[in-house]
Amino acid sequence: MVKAIRVHEPGGPEKMLFEDVELADPGPGEARVRHTAIGLNYIDVYHRTGLYPQSAPYGVGMEGAAVVEALGDGVSHIAVGDRVAYAAPPPGSYSEARVMDASKLVKVPDGIDDETAAAMMLKGMTVEYLVHRTYECKAGETVLFHAAAGGVGQIAGQWLKALGVRAIGTAGGPEKVKLALEHGYDEVIDYNAEDFREKLMELTGGKGVPVVYDSVGAATCEGSLNCLQPRGLYVTFGNASGPIENFAPATLAAKGSLYMTRPTLMTYTATRADLELSAGRVMEMVSSGKVKIEINQRYALADAPQAHRDLEARKTTGQTVLLP
Q: All domains of the chain, ordered by start, with CATH?
C-alpha cells in the first residue's frame, strides 16, 4: 500500500483525499516508480474540478520525478534504479509511487536535481512546443505572452530571450511585473493598471504581434485577438479565468483572417520521438543555464489541497512541488 491523493467526486480542494491505495506489479511495457518530487500545474485543478472529466475515483497530477523500482516485460530504455521524470496522462502523480506506461518516462541527467526535474517537465515542454512547433518564434520578432509571472510564463520569458525574441508579457500588479522582467521579458504590461491591448499597440507602433500566447482564457480572449497582426495566430492553451465560450469563427475573419489553435502538450508529445525531442530541448536549456527553474513553494503531498487553494488564489509564483 502507498499513500496517494484520490478524488471520488469533482469539486473544490477538499475533494482531494489522502488515502491508501494498492499497487499492482508492472505489466508489459510498464514501470513502477517511487516519486521523489511531484510537480503542481493548473491542469491539476481542471481534473479536480471536473472541467476535464475523469472516471471516479481518480488520481490527480500529471508530472513527477522518480526512481524506477520495477519493470515489466519489454522495457529496455530505462533500468531499475534510474532517475526518471515525466509529464503525461493519466493523472496520478500525487502519490508516493505508481505503475505507469514506461514509454512516458525519460532519464534525468546527473546535473539536474529531483525537484527541478519534477517542476520542469510539463511547463518546460509546454514552452518548447509553443515557441518551436505551434509557432516557430524567430530572432527579432515580437510576441505577447500572458501570465508572464506564472510558472510557464517565467520559463517562456527566459526561453524567448535565449532565442533573441522580443517578449512582451502581461502580469497583475507591480510585484509580478517585476518578477516577469527578471525572467527575460523586454516589457511587461500590468493589466491591473492599464489596458493591455492599448499598451501592446503602443509598444509595437500600432503593428501588433504575429502571435499571442494565452493561458488565461475568457478574460483575455477578445483583447488578445485585437493585438494580432492580420493573419496572426492566437494560441489559447489554458483557462485560468474560465473557458472561452460561444466563440464565433467569423470573428477571426473580421479581425484580419486570424488563426486560432487550442494545443495540448499531450498531442505534441504523443510519439516517443516527439517526447524525446521536447524533453531533450528542455533538459538542454536547463543544463545550459539559459532557463532556470525556480521553485518558490514546497508542500507535503498530504497538503495538496492547500497547494491548490494557493494556486487558484494566485498566491504562488514560479514553480511549486509536492514532496512525498
A: 2-121+266-323 (3.90.180.10), 139-262 (3.40.50.720)
